[in-house]
Amino acid sequence: MKKTKKISKPAAIILYIVSAVLIIGVIAGDIYAKNYSQIISIYLSHPTSKIVTDDKDKEDNEYYKSSFASADKQKARAEEVVQKLVEEGIVLLKNENNALPLKSKGKITVLGQNSVDLVYGGGGSGSVETAKVPDLKTVLAKSGFEVNKTLWDFYQTGAGSSYRKKTPDIEGKGSFEVNEVPQSVYTDKEINSFKDYNDAALVVIGRSGGEHSDLATDKLSTGYHYLEIDNNEKDMLKLAKENFETVVVLINSSNPIQLGFLDEYNIDAAISVGALGQTGAYAIGEVLNGSVNPSGNLVDTYAYDAFSSPAMANFGNYKIANSQVDKGNAYMVYGEGIYVGYKYYETRYEDVVLGNEKESDYNYSEQVQFPFGYGLSYSQFKWSDYRVKEKDDKYEVSLKVMNTGSVSGKDVVQIYMQSPYTKYDKDNGIEKASVELVGFSKTSEMKAGESETVTIEVDKEEMKTYDANGKGTYIVDAGDYYFAAGENAHDALNNILAAKGKTTDDGMDYDGNPALVKNFTVDTLDSTTYAESAVTGNKISNQFDGVDIKHYDSSFEYLSRKDWKGTWPSTYEDGSLTASKELLDDLTISYTEDKDAVMPETGVISKEYGKLNAAMFIGRDYDDKLWDVLLNQLTVDEMTKLVRMGGYATVPIKSINLPGTSNLDGPAGISNTLVGGNKQGMAYPAEVVMASTWNVKLIKEMGESVGEDGIRNEVAGWYAPGVNTHRAPFGGRNFEYFSEDGFLSGKLSASEVKGVQSKGTFVYMKHFALNDQETNRLGGAVFANEQAMREIYLKPFETTVREGDARGAMAAMNRIGARWAGGHKGLMTETLRNEWGFKGTVVTDQASLSHFAYQDLREGIEAGTNLWLNTDSKLWKLSNDQLTPTVVNHLRESVHNILYSIVNSNAMNGISTSSRIVEITPLWQYWLIAANVVILLAALAIIVFVTRKLKKQNKVNISA
After folding, report:
1. Who contacts 147 (Cβ-Cβ below 8 Å, separation ≥6)?
2. Which residues does UniProt call coiled coil (predicted)?
């Protein structure tokens, strides 16, 4: 008789435990899958609904159509747009003795570990898939250059490959490290290779950035901060200068690094290329060989010392010492007021020239290396015939531009305004910059000897300033207004000073041209013209008194040109703020129950209109009364689910045939970086590169290209563009915002949005508002005065709404003052909607985890936030007793806004008034069911097997 192997009791126990674990795993997995079904479907690109349309339906239901016959042709065009953006966004910083362009088919040596590790994007939502990008050697070869292979291999696979720059991950973990190859690692083999590739040395300096971490301001292990070059990089520059007659530096950074070394080491030429996107690197070779004449201009001031910016006095990690409020124990004060970037550097320079400031206290030439708007060309341009005509609501500026050089090129005409700084301003705490950008235009490609007349319209509304303490609205000061053309901000100011009779004898660094200036006089202060919204007609009044730190600390002083030294920004002692009881109370979640609120109708079909569906509202006016009839049809459960489950998608509503939508990141183009799936658009250059083109038309083409990606990938909502401000040079996400200047940012953002939305993808401009640093962006309280908020930080958002008709916004994670941005009614309703005329959806930033609880749903929907970027079905649920008439009315208004955005998007493609939305089980759920069956059968088989074995063994033991 054959003996069967016995099973021991310990083994049986282990097998029972394994079975239990399998069963528990199935249960837990099912619960997890249920809770996160939305994000799983998005990640796997498995649809959860489908459109069913009657074959007899004759409606043309393709509302947004691609302009391309195939996906390949659309992709090819997108690649062209990316390269064109970088071609026009590259800024020529220096070009001594016409070192550039390099000779055709030159043999060059490329130095620096960054050469094999270019910055194509940034970390987080603005990241770029580098598997699809060309490397520098490839693009240089395509442009006719032969690259030193010995040195390239040294960096790519040799001893130099051990050195790569590092940045923190998306959660902020890790550190910034430059990690340039030390001089000691180079051998004779590398040095000797120079002689065969000595037409030029191309030295690559790279710096990256990313979400959730600002650039390191402290000294790194090298002894230098992140925006200055370290000893290894200095040694590399010396090596280049010792071995090559021509040395060109390529700056591959989206943040303004300190470039004093260009003069210190007598560098022949330098270009700034920024983060390049998917095919933008090809532009580098075309600029170096002269096929493309660089026409980019800086969108930030490049100071010799990054810490000279007054914003740096309050930039970093500051705590509220006595706060126990969830995500409410950090703060930031914008103590510099309006004096951001060139508005500080140029204004203080003028005060020296005018004698209001001691020259010993401020030397512009030692402060600023490259002013805002600066950019060289391989050609030269002459400006003449400057005219400014006053019209009803604008000034029409015209200027003749002639290409006096020997090659074709484009030029950028910049118009700056100086408004009077009056006694009224000083008495009421209003600050005025000496110049501010109010108009610009890029010429067409002009051949040598050709000319073009540029006409720029400047809205008179640009003359307004916000008077928070006096009239409590916008005013136009009495006094002289100067409108000046300039090659950059500093050039325009020198022209204005020349018009005032000032010369180098008064401390100017060079004489300006008064022929490029016109001035107009306003006789009396005007506090009525712009006291009402030009869009809605509503009165404009203070909305951000509580955001001003003076609301809690009346002794606080913002930086003022009345006394630069005496009001220079400082932090509270040790950077720690002890909050008053009022501030602590204001930091807590707060919303108001209206005792008179009446529960709206829900789940009711109109007898007069019958059952309505979403397709009937395509193109219907936002204020059409029929929306109420549609909203009455919805149940509270449908509304609640739509509002709280808005992470990277919106849920379908079968009862009104509303399709679900796909909503993806980010500023570099439609990306699956954060959520996976197979939906992926073109990776565009960083916004700072886009802005450097100063080309509104090209940016609109880029927007249209993103919209085409939206059609092809069936993406209806796009978490972009980034519209925050380069407040400080160390901002971690400066790469995905346009500029330090709100006027430039707004014009370019509005143009991009026009392009995107013309193809049916609606935008979520972000991060609204005051999210201008990454440190403590989760709940940190940001304080700023109302003038600075409106004129610096809200201005680009306002332009994006008013001129770009943005139909979406993303609420910042930070607080403005003590209130979470999405819960601030003055921002989300009174300003965004009632003043700017915004119609559409406000979504939160990430809200899929419990530690985002401070972004409260009831507080948010009361303030005007509509949709929670949440993928967890457990979160943000409201109980029946919480669904009061007040809350349900706010839910209803939120749903109205969400529906308006969706029905006017490409999500409606294929849907007519007779279509039906049918929910379907996504494929992965069938996979899950199959896996569950297999696992449970395996667990059951183990249990049966072990139990039978034990019973059999037990019988044998008994009979024995």
Report:
1. 108, 109, 110, 136, 137, 140, 141, 197
2. none
* Residues 6 or more apart in contact with residue 607 via CB below 8 angstroms: none
For residue 960, what pLDDT is reported? 52
Sheet holding 661-665, edge to edge: 649-650, 661-665, 717-719, 762-763
DSSP string, 424-476: HHHHTT----S-EEEEEEE---B-TT-EEEEEEEEEGGGG-EEETTTTSEEEB
Does the global pTM surpass 0.90?
A: yes
In sequence order, which residues have a C-beta less than 8 Å from that of residue 960 and are 6 or more positions away?
none
**Domain positions in the chain:** 9-48+923-959, 85-305, 376-541, 573-919
* Fold of the domain built from segment(s) 376-541: Immunoglobulin-like (2.60.40)
Domain at 573-919, CATH homologous superfamily: Glycoside hydrolase, family 3, N-terminal domain (3.20.20.300)
CA distance 347 to 438: 16
Q: What band does 763 get if pLDDT is binned at 50, 70 and 90?
A: very high
Looking at residues 425-439, what average pLDDT do you find? 98
Q: Which CATH architecture has domain 85-305?
A: 3-Layer(aba) Sandwich (3.40)
Residue type, 339: Y
Q: At what angle do helices 71-89 and 696-713 cross, to 10 degrees?
A: 150
Tell me the pLDDT tens digit for each residue of 884-930: 999 999 999 999 999 999 999 999 999 988 777 777 888 888 888 88
Instruction: Write down the pLDDT at residue 53.
Output: 75
Residue 776 token pair: 């403590």
pLDDT of residue 1: 45
Q: What is the pLDDT of residue 821?
A: 98
Percentage of residues in the chain with pLDDT exceeding 70? Answer: 97
For 340-406, the three-class secondary structure string (H helix, E strand, C coil) is CCHHHHHHHHHHHHCCCCCCCCCCHHHHEEECCCCCECCCCEEEEEEEEEECCCEEEEEEEEEECCC
Q: Are the C-beta atoms of 626 and 615 separated by less than 8 Å?
A: no
Q: Assess whether the region 376-541 and the region 573-919 belong to the same CATH fold.
A: no
